């Protein structure tokens, strides 16, 4: 099954939205394959946000991502990268559609509560950046036969 890397940012942790976001993930039928709290540092953020390192807002972005621990997760599902980017909503919370996580839970372009991998290729790179293989669990939820139809998963 496809996997994606998700980070619940300090803006999610500090605003006590963790439970609500995880509830949305679970009620959709998405499988949580790994989950841990971690304190990010400049080194991992320069890799994770390599495409933004030269932007004027990078120091402020990095500080915001180090302001408290984050919760990192590996989520599994059919087409999960595309499904979860849609659930996340566009980058700026003020422009994100209602019904998306950003569109329902934030008002900011930077403090936008959540990160989700943007392609299958990047998901693989990001999962390896944040998790050791033994931290990712390959288990079948008891509900699997009701999450998907025959031959779908
Ligand atoms: P994404 O998180 O929707 O994939 P990216 O363009 O990859 O968006 O940017 C990564 C993160 O950098 C965003 O989630 C947001 O926190 C921050 N960011 C992006 N653009 C800006 C900006 O113009 N000002 C401040 N922060 C930004
Ligand atoms: Mg991105």
Descriptive overview:
The chain is α+β, with helices and mostly antiparallel strands and 153 residues long. It contains eight helices and four strands; from the N terminus they run E-H-H-E-H-H-E-H-H-E-H-H. It has helices at 10-14, 18-28, 42-48, 58-65, 80-88, 101-105, 120-130, 144-147, and strands at residues 3-8, 31-38, 70-76, 114-116. It has a four-stranded antiparallel beta sheet. Bound molecules: inosine-5'-diphosphate and magnesium ion. Inosine-5'-diphosphate is lined by residues 49, 52, 57, 61, 91, 109-110, 112, 115, 118.
pLDDT < 50 stretches: none
Major sheet characteristics: 4 strands, antiparallel
Assembly type of the chains comes to: single chain
The DSSP helix count reads: 8
> How is the largest sheet built, in terms of strand order?
2-3-1-4
From the alpha-carbon coordinates, what is the Rg to the nearest angstrom? 15 Å
What is the chain-wise order of helices and strands?
A: EHHEHHEHHEHH
On the 0 to 100 scale, the average pLDDT is 98
Q: Beta-strand percentage?
A: 15-25%
The end-to-end span amounts to 7 Å
Give the beta-strand count: 4
Bound molecules: inosine-5'-diphosphate, magnesium ion
Shape: globular
Computed structural class: alpha+beta
Helical content, roughly? Answer: 25-40%
